[in-house]
Design a protein that fits this description.
2 copies of one chain form a homodimer.
Chain A lengths: L3 H28 L1 H4 L16 E8 L5 E7 L1 H9 L9 E11 L1 H7 L4 E15 L10 E7 L2 E2 L3 H11 L16
Antiparallel strand pairs in A: 1-2, 2-3, 3-4, 4-5, 5-6
Chain lengths: 180, 180
């Protein structure tokens, strides 16, 4: 019974430390927002996004000419799988794009020109759902990253919602639907 | 204290039941291998494969005309990510293919014909690494599944290794490499 007061103090001390650390992190972020997140939205590259599950895949031809995997965090996957839109706050979608390359090796094996594979990564686009933080863009914040670094072009980031806003309301500003 | 013997009996009873059920499942499998796994290899659709992480993405044009995600279980992802081939026993690769469809909706939004998306699933191919079980096919066993059901064509399954065997030895009979 004698240990109880000490335990309470120790737990209180840890909690206090956590609060201090949390404030310190916020201060750092507000000092250098460019290094921390995207222009306009302050979206950062979510840790572990490369390990997320797949919503679907796609190919953009023309000038873009990439092949892409669209991944989601747990909250996004749950909504995408169930088709229950709009996505809830906390949903994050990661669109990973790669050079779209013909594969001479595969084509030689198959005996015909048919195989296209992913080359180097081109960019990663992150969409974060947070209705309170992003009330003017359908609840979505956007960020683009090349080689793990945020793209700092405000002109570029403003093309995101301009384009996503053209989708029908039922899509909740998201191009991709779940592929079973 | 009076309850203890009863508890032990109850636990023992449950354990016995589990053993019986386990044997029953095995008997069912050996009675009807065609319904349980692929021809030649006996490969089954691994539970939860749709939640696996992404190795890469690809597009096969021509008669196949699909867009695909290549996923791996934990053992496969670890080797693919590190590039440490051959894959160890227990590695499983799941190739999920979908109809390759132009997206009139996206093309209207982008103002040009460039967008291709995944339609209905066409088939899932599973490659299982087990050097002891599949000594004659580079340690790999294969299975193809449509709508969750195994493809029972022996002719079809025999095309798998015939094609994978044309890859250079360094590829360990696997077409896809990890996209970061």
């Amino acid at each position: 019974m004698q240990r109880k007061p000490f335990m309470l103090v120790a737990v209180g001390g840890l909690f206090g430390l956590a609060v201090v650390l949390s404030h310190a992190a916020k201060d750092t972020a507000s000092e250098d927002p460019g290094a921390q997140g995207s222009p306009v939205y302050g979206v950062t590259l979510p840790p572990g996004y490369r390990e997320w599950q797949v919503i679907s895949v796609a190919h953009e031809a023309g000038n873009i000419n990439d092949i892409r995997a669209i991944l989601g965090n747990e909250i996004a996957m749950k909504a995408a799988r169930a088709g229950t839109l709009p996505f809830p706050d906390g949903a994050i979608i990661a669109r990973l794009a790669y050079e779209y390359l013909p594969s001479p090796r595969n084509n030689a094996i198959f005996g015909r020109d048919q195989s296209f594979v992913a080359g180097n990564p081109t960019n990663v686009q992150i969409s974060v759902k947070d209705a309170k933080r992003y009330p003017n863009t359908g609840g979505w914040g956007y960020g683009q990253f090349e080689n793990g670094k945020v793209n700092t072009s405000e002109k570029n980031i403003n093309t995101c919602f301009a384009c996503h806003a053209k989708l029908p309301a039922s899509a909740d500003f998201v191009f991709t639907t779940y592929s079973p």
